[in-house]
Structure formats: C-alpha cells, structure tokens
Amino acid sequence: MKKFGSCNSIFKGDDGFDIMTVETDISFGLFFFKIIGLADRMMQESRFRISSALRNSGFGTPQRRNEKVTVSLLPAHQKKASISSDLAIATSYLIASRQISDFPNETLIIGQIGLDGSISADEDMAHIIDMGIEHGITDFVFPNSEKRIAELRPRADIRIARISMLADIDKIEFENIPADDSVPQHADSAPIAFGIDSLDGIDFHKRAMMIAIAGMHPILLSGIPGTGKSALARCATELMPDLTPEQAADVRVPYGHAGIPRANQHTPPMRTPHHQISRTGMLGGSQNRHVGELALADHGLLVLDELCEFKRSTIESLREVFDQRGAHIRKKNEQFFLPFRGLIIATTNLCPCGLTGGEDDRACRCSRPRIRTYQARLSNPMLDRFHIKTIFYLHEKDRSPQPDSGQGSAVAPMAGSFMRRSVLEAREIQRSRNGDEGFIPNAYLSMDKIRRLGISPEAIAAAEYSEKASLSSHRLITNSFRIARTIADLAGSEQIEKPHILEAFQYAKTSPF
User: Fold this and answer.
1) Has residue 152 been placed in a domain?
2) Same domain for 164 and 45?
3) What is the per-residue pLDDT for 4?
4) pLDDT tens-place string over residues 173-208
C-alpha cells in the first residue's frame, strides 16, 4: 500500500531563495531512497544525514523498514540547492510512513539535520516568513535559536514552532511570535554618539550632506585627499532615518537571495563597492541572476568612493538610476525593472595623484593627458545628475565658500544630533505633503509640483537672473529648485524663498573639473 506525505521548505535557485514543496511517496519493496526535482549534490547527500538522524532519534529508517522512498521537490523544472531542507524531507518521510501525524495547516519547515538529530539553520527567518506569507503559509517550524527568534517582530497572523532535536518533531507546539521587551523595536531615535561630530572644519559640507539626505539628492564630494570626503560619506548612515517595517521587508528580499546576513534589520543598508566592480556586479542580472550592489543598497546608501577610478561603463550604467529611481536589467532571457529608492553618494579626487586643487598645483605629478583621461570617466551628463556637488580644500576654513541662506546656518557648528533631527523633520514634511502617495523625495519632484508648493517672486527672479548669467541647462535649473525645496523644508518655510534658491545654486553649479 502506498503512503504519501508533503510539507514546504526553501531552496536556492537561479533567482535566490524561494519556496518549494517536498512530497514523499512510500511503497514496499526493494529498498531505495531517491530525491528527484533537479536537486544538487548537496541535497542528494541529505539522504545519508536523514537516515542516520532518523535511526539516532528512535524512528524507523527506510532501509530497516524495506521501503521504496521517492522524494519529489516542486517546482520540478528549477535547479535547487539547499542544506536547510533536511528537516522538511525527514518530516515528509515521517508523515508518509505514518510515524507522526500530519500538520493541520500548510507548514513551512526549515532546518539542517546533524547525524545525531540536532537541528540548526543560518537563514534569515524574517525573510523566510515574508516568502511564506506570499504563498499563503501561516505556520512555520524553525530551529530553536533565541537570537534568531528575537530578531522577529511580534505578529498575530502567523504561528511558529521551535525544535532542537528531530526526536521532538511530534511534540512541537505552534505559538505566535512573543514580544520581547528587552529587544528595542523600530523607532526613529537618534544614536547616542555621532562619528560625524569628530569631523571638524567642514560644516559647509556637512550641511550639504544633510540637505542631500533630507531630500534624497545624489551628492558628489570632490577635492584633494585627506580632507574628509570619504569620512563624511561613511558617516552619512548616522543621519538616515530607521527603516519602516515595509522598507525593512523590501531590504530583506535581496539580502535573503544573496545569503548575506544583516545584524540590524531596522538600520538602512550601506554598500561601498570596490572601484573594480563590473556593470553586472553593480546592477545585477546576467545568466546566473546575480544580486547587484544596487539591489543591496535599496532604501539605504550606495557610496561610490573614488568615483573616477570606476570603469566608465559602470558609471554610465547608473544613468537610468538617477532619472527613474531604478534600472532595467536582463535576467537570462527576461527583462526586469530593479527599483532603487536609496541615495547615491560619490567621492573623487581631481586627478589620479589627487594633488590638483591643493595649495600648490605644481606638486601634482600627473601629465595633462592623464588628467583629461581620468576626468573623462565622469561625463558631463553624469556630472549634471549629481544634484549637489562640493569641493574640499586643504584649509577649509579659509577657502570654503559659505552658503547665503540668510540664516547663518553654515556658520553655526553642525552637530550630528541636530542634523539627524532636521532630516527626520524634513522627511516627515515630505511624507505628509504627499498624502496617500507616501514618501516621494524632493529629488524626484516635477517642476509643476514644485510651483504648486510655492515659490516667492524674489526666488523666481533670482533663478531667472542666474539662468541667463551662467547659461544653465534645464536639468541644472530643475535640480536647483528641488534642492531649494529641501532647504525650505529644513527651514520650516511654506514656499521657496530667495536665500533658499541662492544656496541651492551654489551646490548645483559647482563643478570639480
């Protein structure tokens, strides 16, 4: 008489982790244990782990019971790799052989089995729960890891059961995720200490960074080495608001597919790819459906340190990202739109040796052709797409220009706590202004929307004069008004005033080359 059992688990395929159904069919006859469904060698070897674990846990094994066991992994047409499906395969066999009762609801089971029957797993449980809910699964069986369970936020729509040994599979009890008061929940609270406070003498650039983060404006920091460009870029994550639950769920997807753990689920991600990265490494895609840096930096920061050291093809591949908040990429024979709702921060020297722009340009060791080749990697259209551009000087207090904001904002020290609080307030203004549409950064507002929000006649006159005097492009003018809208939000102003647009023009018109 045939016996049948099934449950759900996860596998890693071409698109990353996904849900699979484990079906087990048992009939009596000459013993064999076969796994079908394009399982890789690692999953095929699970037969030996499972047989030893069953015997050491007191259960009957297929060989001793003289059974013909066929395990089918669905969908059958996708290649599968996983070491966390051991427990699901073993459970499916125990259900089919009637050694334990079937689960009342559809259940997703995760766990790698040791030869002694111990259960372990390293996957991101929050990401697995999100995948299960998308497939209509509400019951989950996880290894008993206090650290992993503590990372999950309490929710009443799912139940989990924890297991340490295979011998306890018939004794597990499902419960809702408990709330742990010792684990801090998501909150937009400022950190106690700010690394950005240790950066002295660059308040002008700190304010530029605060404006960039508040309105999600791409920013380019240029200048000679040792002036704080990279340090300021890496401190930018301190000013970012914590992720909302919806944003955290979006971030978990690419990190889960890539198998990269995240220590804090509520902190915006920051990626700092090496300048030798390829176009595929940056955007993802290709035949193996690689997860790119762009996807990993979604809702966070993509820091491109030494931008002009990147290949020009890699830099140009980001052009669509600046305009459409994402990029179209190909995965095998299909095309997808990859959203990017983060902020791009770039730094660069002015020449390969970095000494151009210092107190004595004669110290530069680069020839003119070499400097032109170096600077040509960043085309003018790409340079225009950075809304905010600043240049770091060796003696910043003597040579750095001061924005004419009309409020002396760049003269007062820019403390990290003040900057983060200002960013949060400006973000809240933008979120409440868009209503049901949610948070739309000022960096992506149209000119029609900016006009409807309000521009004073003095600001319009100042913009028209500046446009005629410097023959500015349409893109530069639009970006200037977007920056000015953010400056107005930071100042608590209902409309864009003349000081706001004048300060915005300083950031937009600056060119490092």
Assistant:
1) yes
2) yes
3) 77
4) 998 875 544 444 444 444 457 889 898 889 999 999
Token pair for residue 325?
A: 């908040």
* pLDDT tens digits, one per residue of 376-411: 999 999 999 999 999 998 766 544 444 444 443 443
Neighbour-count burial of 397, counting CB atoms closer than 10 A to its CB (0-12 exposed, 13-18 middle, 19+ buried): exposed
Same domain, 151 and 244: no
Tally Cβ neighbours within 10 Å of residue 504: 30
Token pair 């999953």 is found at 43
* CATH label of the domain that carries residue 256: 3.40.50.300
Is residue 254 classed exposed, middle or buried when 0-12, 13-18 and 19+ CB atoms within 10 A define those classes?
buried
Average pLDDT of span 358-385? 85
Same domain, 355 and 404: yes
The pLDDT value recorded for residue 359 is: 61
Out of 168, 184, 203, a domain closes at 168
Same domain, 235 and 372: yes
Give 83-121 pLDDT, tens digit per residue. 789 999 999 999 999 999 999 899 999 999 999 999 998
In a domain, 504, yes or no: no
pLDDT, the chain, mean? 86
**Number of compact structural domains in the chain:** 2
pLDDT at 245 (0 to 100)? 86
DSSP assignment letter at 150: H
Same domain, residue pair 155 and 256: no
Q: 421-427 long-range contacts, Cβ below 8 Å, gap at least 24?
A: 421/190, 422/210, 422/214, 422/490, 423/210, 423/213, 423/214, 423/239, 423/240, 423/241, 424/188, 424/241, 425/489, 425/490, 425/492, 426/214, 426/215, 426/486, 426/489, 426/490, 427/214, 427/241
Residue 210 clears pLDDT 70, i.e. is over it: yes
Residue 476 in domain? no
Residues 263 and 351 both lie in one domain: yes
Within a domain: residue 163? yes
Identify which of 112, 110, 98, 116 has the alpha carbon closest to the alpha carbon of residue 52.
116
Domain of 64 in residue numbering reads as 3-168
Please give the Cα distance from 307 to 352 (Å, whole number).
11
CA distances to 102, 211, 354 from 365, in Å = 75, 35, 9
